[in-house]
Design brief:
single chain; globular; 19 helices; 0% strand; 521 residues; mainly alpha
C-alpha cells in the first residue's frame, strides 16, 4: 500500500496527543456535571434524565466505543498493510452500512420498547406517573445518540489507523460542549427544562461525529452504501466483535449487581462510590485509555506484518510508560484522596462526613487503577493478534471473582468493600492476561516486567508518602484557593521525590520519558 497518508510517530508522542485531548474532554465533562447541578439541582427531573441516559450510554460503552472500535481497527489496518487503500475503504463502507442498519434497528426498537425498558430498569418510578412518563420520553429522545456515537467510533478507528489521533481524541469534548451550551441557551424555552439536557446529548453526539469528518475526507474516503455480510473482512470483524460484546456484557452485569448490593447499604453508599470512581477514572482516561487507543493500531500493523519481536517491544514500551504515569497517580489518590475529594466536592450540601466516606472509597479504588490501566494496553495485543476469546474468558472470570468478593469485602469494609472487590478483580484481570501473553509467541519477559513494576511502585509510594509528611499549609483567606494551593504543592513535592527515587532505583523508563520530552520540546 501507499504509506504517504499514514503518520509515523512513537507510542509515547501519539499518546501525549491523546492524553492532552482526553484531559481537556474530562475537564469539560466536570463542567457539564456542574452545569446540570447548577440549573437542575437534584430533583425528579435529574433522576429521570440519569435513568433515561443510562441505557443508551451502557449500549454505547458495549457496542460503539468498546467492541466495535476494537474489532474494526485490526482488520481495517490489516487491509491497509497487506491489501490496498481501496480494499480498506470498501471494508469501512460495508461496516458503516451494517452499523446504520443494525444499530439503527436497535435504536428503533429502543424507542418503541422504552416504557418496558424503564418499567424493568427503574420500576420504582411507576409510583409517580409523571416521573415515569418523563423518563420514557427522555429515553426515546436520547436513544438516537447510540447511532451517532457508533458512527463516530467507526470514524475514529479509521483515523487512528492512519496515525491521526488528535481530532478523534478531541471528539468527546464536542459532546460535553454541545450539552453545556444546550443547557445554557435552551433551558428557558422548555416547560420542562431538563429537555434541554436531552437535546444537548443529541447536539453533542452530532458534534462528536461531524468534527472528525473533514479529516476523514482529506484521506480520500467517501461513504458508499455497500451491503455485503459475506465479505471476508467483515466476517473477521464479527468473529472479533461477538466475544468482545459477551465479555463487556459480563462487566455491565457486574455494574448492575454492584448497584443492587450498594442499595442495601448505608444511605449515600452509591453516591460515595460514584464520586470516587469518577476521580479515579480521570487518570485512567487521560493516561491508560490514551495509550490503549494508540497501541491498538500500532500493534495491529505489526501483527499484519508478522513482526512479533516488534510487537513485544511496543507492548513493553506502552506498559512501562503506562506504569510510569499511573503508579504515581494511584499513590497520590491513596494518600491525598480525601484532600482531593474536599477540593472538588465539599461545597454546599456535601458535608465533611460525605468527604471522608468518599475518600475511603477512593482509597480502595486507587490500587485498582493499576490493574484497570494495565489491562487497557494489554488487551489490544490480543485483539491485534486476532484473539478476542481469551481476553473475554479472563474478563468473565474476573467478573465472577469480583462478585464473589462482594460479601466478604462488604462485611470487612462496609460500602468501601465494593470498591476493594472491584480493584482486586482488576488486578487479577491484568495478572491473568500477562500470564497468557507469552503463549501468543510475543517475546515478553515477565520477570523483567514485574521487576520494573515493583521499582516504580516503591518509588511512587515512598515519594508521595514523604510528601504527605511535609508540613504544607498556605495561609490563604479564600478557602478554595487554600485547598488548591495545599494540594498542588503536595502533589508537586511528591512528584519530584518520586522522580528522584526512580533515578536512584534506576528505573530505565524515566530516561526514555526524558528523551521524549526533550525531543518534543
Amino acid at each position: 500500500m501507499s504509506t504517504d497518508k499514514v503518520k509515523k510517530s512513537s507510542i509515547a508522542s501519539s499518546a501525549a496527543v491523546v492524553s492532552g485531548a482526553t484531559a481537556f474532554s474530562r475537564v469539560l465533562g466536570l463542567v457539564r456535571e456542574q452545569a446540570m447541578a447548577y440549573f437542575f439541582g437534584a430533583s425528579l427531573a435529574t433522576d429521570a434524565f440519569v435513568t433515561a441516559f443510562r441505557i443508551p450510554n451502557l449500549l454505547r460503552d458495549m457496542f460503539a466505543e468498546g467492541a466495535l472500535s476494537s474489532a474494526f481497527v485490526p482488520v481495517f489496518k490489516e487491509k491497509l498493510v497487506k491489501g490496498s487503500e481501496r480494499e480498506a475503504f470498501s471494508l469501512a463502507n460495508i461496516t458503516a452500512t451494517a452499523v446504520l442498519l443494525f444499530v439503527g434497528g436497535i435504536v428503533l426498537l429502543g424507542i418503541l420498547a422504552a416504557p418496558a425498558i424503564i418499567y424493568i430498569s427503574a420500576n420504582g418510578f411507576t409510583e409517580d406517573p409523571h416521573k415515569f412518563d418523563l423518563t420514557v420520553r427522555l429515553t426515546r429522545l436520547m436513544f438516537v445518540y447510540l447511532l451517532l456515537v457508533s458512527l463516530s467510533s467507526l470514524v475514529m478507528g479509521m483515523l487512528n489507523s492512519f496515525g491521526r489521533f488528535g481530532i478523534p481524541a478531541l471528539a468527546p469534548a464536542m459532546f460535553n460542549i454541545g450539552t453545556v451550551l444546550s443547557i445554557w441557551l435552551l433551558h428557558r424555552y422548555f416547560t420542562i427544562p431538563i429537555y434541554s439536557m436531552a437535546i444537548g446529548v443529541l447536539i453533542g453526539g452530532v458534534g462528536q461525529l461531524v468534527i472528525q469528518v473533514p479529516a476523514l475526507l482529506s484521506l480520500g474516503y467517501r461513504f458508499r452504501f455497500q451491503f455485503d455480510l459475506l465479505n471476508q473482512g467483515f466476517k473477521k470483524i464479527l468473529r472479533l466483535f461477538t466475544p468482545m460484546v459477551i465479555g463487556l456484557s459480563a462487566g455491565r452485569i457486574n455494574i448492575i449487581v454492584n448497584t443492587l448490593v450498594a442499595s442495601f447499604l448505608v444511605e449515600g453508599s452509591l453516591t460515595y462510590l460514584n464520586y470516587s470512581y469518577r476521580l479515579m477514572h480521570f487518570p485512567l482516561g487521560v493516561f491508560a485509555v490514551a495509550l490503549g487507543t494508540v497501541a491498538l493500531p500500532k500493534v495491529s500493523e505489526l501483527a499484519a506484518r508478522g513482526d512479533l519481536e516488534e510487537i513485544g517491544r511496543s507492548f513493553r514500551e506502552a506498559l512501562n510508560l503506562n506504569l510510569l504515569l499511573v503508579m504515581p497517580s494511584a499513590a497520590f489518590l491513596s494518600l491525598f484522596g480525601s484532600d482531593l475529594v474536599r477540593l472538588v466536592y465539599q461545597w454546599g450540601a456535601f458535608t465533611d462526613s460525605d468527604a471522608t466516606n468518599t475518600g475511603l472509597a477512593l482509597l480502595h479504588y486507587s490500587y485498582g487503577l493499576i490493574g484497570f490501566a494495565a489491562v487497557r494496553v494489554t488487551v489490544p495485543v490480543f485483539y491485534a493478534l486476532g484473539d478476542a476469546r481469551l481476553p473475554t474468558r479472563v474478563s468473565i472470570i474476573s467478573v465472577f471473582v469480583n462478585m464473589a468478593l462482594y460479601y466478604p469485602m462488604v462485611k470487612l469494609l462496609g460500602f468501601a468493600g465494593l470498591a476493594a472487590a472491584t480493584s482486586a478483580a482488576g488486578l487479577l484481570n491484568f495478572g491473568m492476561l500477562l500470564y497468557y501473553l507469552p503463549g501468543k509467541n510475543v517475546p515478553v519477559s515477565l520477570h523483567k516486567l514485574l521487576l520494573s513494576l515493583v521499582r516504580i511502585a516503591v518509588a511512587a509510594w515512598f515519594g508521595f508518602y514523604l510528601a504527605r509528611m511535609l508540613p504544607i499549609d498556605f495561609s490563604i483567606q479564600t478557602e478554595v484557593l487554600r485547598r488548591l494551593a495545599d494540594l498542588a504543592a503536595a502533589g508537586a513535592a511528591g512528584g519530584l521525590i518520586y522522580l528522584s527515587f526512580c533515578i536512584i532505583l534506576r528505573v530505565k523508563e524515566i530516561s526514555g520519558l526524558k528523551r521524549w520530552l526533550l525531543r518534543g520540546r
